């Protein structure tokens, strides 16, 4: 039995994928490692994946597919996963070995108890090149540690705090029940992954360990600001999927509803701010269209997002307001070190 499936999407990843895979291998036979080669053409990604499969046939599987992007690689991985739980690790990131063992042991203990946990939440570290201090994202303010909880047992998340894919380890059946199908050839789908399945999660468990190391530093990385500006169309695509494919009206838990509204507020703010950063009239008009489209389709959601703190901040009127919005973003970026 595999308790945990690790999905590693790889695209021309030969320079760094070994560090990622080697960080998971010490977990042994309790896990499977699905190395998804997303049609790599420039290096030995597939060859390396097959070598791991040959050397560790009961742990590693190499899966080759035509290039379809990060989301499509995740779709293939989720379909192939046989573990009770599923964890995504990007090929340039890695996990802490001791922390990985703690997660697997916690899964095993709670499965034996019949706790029926749907989501394990752990911390992650921003491993940013050149940063003297590594920023840690933890959730102890919002979520009581080491307890089986339902959403209404969770405290409120501080403004701007939300759970990225790096923090989440879903029960595999939850991902399938949520019918999670991520779009092809699209970046930033990790936001959909971290958002759309949540209404299907009934019980959660916060394991306060620094499991995931999120590497930031490659010039071609999707979170690089210049790269994001070049992919605004994809940012809009992801934001619209999150807006219109999840019916927040059906969520019964007040705490979960509040959390998802906050997450959506952050997404709308990012989309709005980057439209302003582009200094392109087309994208400035598109961000106005996005807000008006939301107002037409769902007035309640529009009002909740538009008149939230972040909504007001990202929609300050006039050119002076736009400058204040961008200036505020730059200040927060400097303080927290994201992008």
Question: Can you put this structure into words, describing what you see?
Answer:
The protein has 339 residues and is of the alpha/beta class. It has 13 helices and ten strands. It has two domains: 4-216, Alpha-Beta Complex (Spore Coat Polysaccharide Biosynthesis Protein SpsA, Chain A), CATH 3.90.550; 225-336. Strand 1, helix 1 and strand 2 (31-38) form a beta-alpha-beta unit. 37% of the residues are buried. Strands 1, 2, 3, 4, 5, 6, 7, 8, 9 and 10 form a ten-stranded mixed beta sheet that branches.
Sheet with most strands: 10 strands, mixed
The shape, in one word, is globular
Helicity range of the residues?
A: 40-55%
Mean pLDDT: 93
State the fourth-level CATH superfamily of the largest domain: Spore Coat Polysaccharide Biosynthesis Protein SpsA, Chain A
Supply the CATH class of the largest domain. Alpha Beta
Please name the defining characteristics of this protein:
single chain, 339 residues, alpha/beta, Spore Coat Polysaccharide Biosynthesis Protein SpsA, Chain A, 2 domains, 13 helices
């Amino acid at each position: 039995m595999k308790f945990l499936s690790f999905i590693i999407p790889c695209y021309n990843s030969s320079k760094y994928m070994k560090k990622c895979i080697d960080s998971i291998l010490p977990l042994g036979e309790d896990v499977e490692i699905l190395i998804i080669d997303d049609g790599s053409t420039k290096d030995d990604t597939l060859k390396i994946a097959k070598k791991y499969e040959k050397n560790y046939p009961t742990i590693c599987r190499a899966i080759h597919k035509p290039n379809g992007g990060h989301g499509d690689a995740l779709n293939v991985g989720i379909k192939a996963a046989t573990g009770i739980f599923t964890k995504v690790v990007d090929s340039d990131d890695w996990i802490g070995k001791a922390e990985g063992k703690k997660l697997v042991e916690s899964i095993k203990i709670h499965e034996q108890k019949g706790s029926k946990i749907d989501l394990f939440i752990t911390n992650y570290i921003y491993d940013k090149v050149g940063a003297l201090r590594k920023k840690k994202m933890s959730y102890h303010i919002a979520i009581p540690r080491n307890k089986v909880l339902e959403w209404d047992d969770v405290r409120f998340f501080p403004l701007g705090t939300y759970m990225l894919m790096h923090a989440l380890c879903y029960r595999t059946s939850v991902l399938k029940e949520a019918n999670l199908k991520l779009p092809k050839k699209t970046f930033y789908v990790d936001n959909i992954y971290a958002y759309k399945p949540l209404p299907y999660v009934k019980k959660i468990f916060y394991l306060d360990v620094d499991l995931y190391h999120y590497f930031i530093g490659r010039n071609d990385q999707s979170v690089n600001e210049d790269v994001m500006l070049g992919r605004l169309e994809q940012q809009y695509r992801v934001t619209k999927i999150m807006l219109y494919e999840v019916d927040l009206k059906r969520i019964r838990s007040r705490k979960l509803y509040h959390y998802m509204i906050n997450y959506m507020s952050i997404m709308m703010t990012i989309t709005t701010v980057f439209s302003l950063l582009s200094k392109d009239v087309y994208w400035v008009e598109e961000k106005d269209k996005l807000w008006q489209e939301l107002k037409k389709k769902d007035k309640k959601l529009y009002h909740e997002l538009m008149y939230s703190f972040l909504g007001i901040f990202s929609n300050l009127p006039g050119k002076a307001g736009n400058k204040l919005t961008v200036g505020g973003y730059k200040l927060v970026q400097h303080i927290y070190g994201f992008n």
